[in-house]
Amino acid sequence: MGFKDPGYLERKSAATDARKAALEKFRANVATNDPAAADRQAARQAVSDARDARAAARKAAKAAREIELAQEAVRAKEQAEQAARDAVENAKREAAEKASREEAEEADRKAARDARYAARKARKR
């Protein structure tokens, strides 16, 4: 048998292991040689925490804004429904008023007609 060529997965795992080893070696070297590294790491962590806090505040503000918009939409819907009910009531009231006016006018016309009829009958006698 001859030389066996390593497969893709074997090459990938070997490269990953090599990267991990190099990173661990670098971290061990930096941690022991540079006392300011801890300060830099703490500063980076503080910046990261502040960034996370700002993101959480933005998320909370967005949620509050969405709740406010939803409440405003509900109020607008209720106002529209109330306006529709008012319009229906106004239309009914106006129709009733128009009908009563027409009845009164009809009664006036009938009374005038009856008066003319009675006057005509009175003249003939």
Broad shape:
rod-shaped
Structural class: mainly alpha
Largest pleated sheet: none
Strand residue content: under 5%
How many DSSP-defined strands?
0
Count of runs of 4 or more consecutive helical residues: 2
Quote the distance from N terminus to C terminus.
148 Å
* Helical content (DSSP H or I, runs of 4+): over 70%
Q: What are the low-pLDDT stretches, counting only 5+ consecutive residues below 50? A: none
Order of helices and strands: HH
Mean pLDDT: 91
Number of domains: 1
Rg: 46 Å
Record keyword descriptors for this entry.
125 residues; rod-shaped
Could you describe the 3D structure shown?
With 125 residues, the protein is an all-alpha fold. The protein has one domain (9-124). It is built from 2 helices and no strands. It has helices at residues 8-33, 36-124. The longest helix is centred in the middle third of the chain and has 89 residues, at 36-124. The protein is rod-shaped, with a radius of gyration of 46 Å. The relative contact order is 0.03.
